[in-house]
């Protein structure tokens, strides 16, 4: 069999395992993160990616909606959340949420991605009414709503179980959950970057219950701050273990820390090298998660495009309006047109496939779409 000449000789054993479909160990994960042989890592990750998805790169036409930036958590990693009394803070009315959803709707979105801060006054009923109103107005649009952190906060405030809270959200219209808020599960690191947030076990437990209720979700890892390689590998292994149990994760999205306007501003930005490595290592360690997303807002469209040759098979979508990364200094645009995504993917030699949130192919005109079951 064709054997590439790796600069890092340790990668040969990892290639053998990847070819044979043998699960990589914690130690393998460390080896991958500590290797500077990016082309070697990319070669192996691309092999796995092509085995799973051939040459296809998935994208979607979606719209982000952030109903409020008011947040009780004050995470050091975050530039988006504001105190309730902060004069810069905003909270949309229900009418504003519904109206925002419709803006940019001419290029018919198949997904609304809805996340916000932990608002101390907004009730579960308010969120359910928001969801019902969206479903009434846009019945075909998939609602990918609320991070595990928001769900757990709502459950605590309403004195309901996670199961009951998720069941009510599902009944009101939640179709799946995004992957945010996982950060890094290590307690040592969480104490520094997000000490008021639920811990890693609670994040995983919320995902477990969502999956048991039949809701798919995504998962993420925030890297490039104060975490060690061991913390990253531990995070990936814990996601992999839950996925063995539930099969509910669709997509993993590595998120590079953006330091601007956060309390961790002294930490530098990640590099393109680190971002591509995060994609490749994820593809190799998460053997049971179907998709790896190179989120173009976070990576820049240029690096997200290259990532399609380093293990990623998804590039996210049109987005229309992004706040979390732009508050933290992202210099990317807020939105890409469908045609721009097609062009980026094709110019990486990949075959673009528009998907809905559950990865079913979509055909469309400018204003309507059909999901192919
Ligand atoms: O939960 C917050 C992270 C997440 C910063 O599921 C930051 O399809 C970097 O989860 N620098 C929100 N990251 C984004 C997110 C996401 C994005 C795209 C697609 C999907 C999906 C999920 O961003 C937060 C937090 O983990 N974050 N602040 C920051 N300064």
| Mean pLDDT over the full residue set | 96
Number of strands: 12
Radius of gyration: 20 Å
CATH class call: Alpha Beta
- Ligands (ions, cofactors included): ligand V47
Counting structural domains, the number is 1
* Proper CATH architecture: Alpha-Beta Barrel
Discrete helix count? 15
CATH superfamily: Aldolase class I
CATH domain fold name: TIM Barrel
Decide which structural class fits the backbone. Answer: alpha/beta
- Low-confidence segments, ≥5 residues, pLDDT <50? none
User: Topology as H/E string?
Assistant: HHHEEHEHEHHEHHEHEHEHHEHHEEE
**Neighbour order of strands in the largest sheet:** 5-6-7-8
Structure description:
The chain is of the alpha/beta class and 373 residues long. It has helices at residues 11-20, 26-34, 38-53, 94-102, 124-137, 148-158, 162-172, 187-193, 200-212, 229-246, 272-285, 296-299, 301-307, 324-327, 338-346; strands at residues 56-60, 62-65, 111-114, 142-145, 176-177, 216-223, 249-256, 291-292, 314-317, 351-354, 362-364, 369-371. The chain has a single domain (40-362), classed as Alpha-Beta Barrel (TIM Barrel), CATH 3.20.20.70. The protein is 42% helix and 14% strand. It has a 4-stranded parallel sheet. Helix 3 packs across helix 11 (272-285). 49% of the residues are buried. Residues 77-80, 147, 178-181, 183, 218, 220, 222, 253, 255, 257-258, 262, 295, 316, 324, 328 line the site of ligand V47.
């Amino acid at each position: 069999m064709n054997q590439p000449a790796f600069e890092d000789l340790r990668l040969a054993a990892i290639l053998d395992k990847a070819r044979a479909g043998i699960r990589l160990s914690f130690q393998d994960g460390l080896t991958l993160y500590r290797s500077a042989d990016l082309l070697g890592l990319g070669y192996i990750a691309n092999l796995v990616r092509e085995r799973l998805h051939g040459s296809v790169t998935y994208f979607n036409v979606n719209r982000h909606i952030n109903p409020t930036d008011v947040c009780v958590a004050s995470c050091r990693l975050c530039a988006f959340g504001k105190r309730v009394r902060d004069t810069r803070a905003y909270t949309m009315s229900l009418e504003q949420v519904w109206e925002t959803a419709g803006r940019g709707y001419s290029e018919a979105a198949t997904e609304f991605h809805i996340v916000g801060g932990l608002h101390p006054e907004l009730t579960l009923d308010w969120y359910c009414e928001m969801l019902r109103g969206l479903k009434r107005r846009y019945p075909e649009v998939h609602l990918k709503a609320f991070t595990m952190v928001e769900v757990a906060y709502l459950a605590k405030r309403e004195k309901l179980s996670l199961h009951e809270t998720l069941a009510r959200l599902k009944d009101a219209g939640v179709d799946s959950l995004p992957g945010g808020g996982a950060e890094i599960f290590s307690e040592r690191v969480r104490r520094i970057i997000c000490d008021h947030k639920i811990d890693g076990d609670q994040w995983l437990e919320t995902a477990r219950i969502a999956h048991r209720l039949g809701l798919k979700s995504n998962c993420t890892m925030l890297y490039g701050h104060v975490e060690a390689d061991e913390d990253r590998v531990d995070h990936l292994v814990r996601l992999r273990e839950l996925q063995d149990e539930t099969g509910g994760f669709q997509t993993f999205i590595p998120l590079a820390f953006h330091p601007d306007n956060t309390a961790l501003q002294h930490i530098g930005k990640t590099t393109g090298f680190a971002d591509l490595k995060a994609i490749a290592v994820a593809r190799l360690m998460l053997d049971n998660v179907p998709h790896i997303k190179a989120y173009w807002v976070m990576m820049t469209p240029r690096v997200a495009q290259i990532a399609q040759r380093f293990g990623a098979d998804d590039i996210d979508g049109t987005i229309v309006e992004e706040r979390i990364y732009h508050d933290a200094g992202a210099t990317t645009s807020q939105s890409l047109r469908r045609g721009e995504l097609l062009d980026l993917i094709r110019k990486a030699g990949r075959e673009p496939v528009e998907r809905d949130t559950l990865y079913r192919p979509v055909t469309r005109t400018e204003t309507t779409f059909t999901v192919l079951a």
